[in-house]
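Q: Structure tokens for this one, please.
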Amino acid sequence: MEHQKTSPWLIAFRVIFTIALIACTAFIFRNSLQAGELSSARSQAVMRLMNELLGKVGLGPVSEHTVRKLAHFAEFTMEGFLLMLCLRVYTARFVRHVSWPLLGGMSTALMDETIQRFIPGRSSQVTDVWIDMAGVVCGLFVALILLLVVRAATAFHRIKKENRRLRAERERLLREQEEDRINAAMPHQEKPDRRELL
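A: Here is the predicted structure, written as tokens:
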């Protein structure tokens, strides 16, 4: 039995999404390994930038606590998105196996909070695990919707292509039938009688 050859595009997407997922996870753990003072300084810098932008559109200021929770949610949303894309490039039945990226996201969230327990000036909170998991689920849903849209568009394109092929085949058959009808209607040349030739 012959094995179906893997598309070079599929191999490229596997490499790209796997590397992106590893980089995203490393970024999450790198943030967790930062000491409390450095992490707080980064959060305050982001808070000031966000408050400047929000002030321009007339929205109220956000606190450092809100910025930190939003950062948790955003980085895990990205991880959930990449987990789903990785699942898709390794299996065509990605909806059936959606529990795998959920388990991966949960594992990362638990490890992230466990790491923070041992870092000076950092704390581990159950609420952060819930925020992280909410981000993972959000990323999964965004990727899932995107994948389903792409699948529907691909199927629509395939159907249109097949319809064009069937129409061309039908037109060819109609032309052949018309040619056969014309050939059948043409008067046959009479063959000379053998008795006349004698």
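A few notes: The mean pLDDT is 87. The chain has six helices and no strands.
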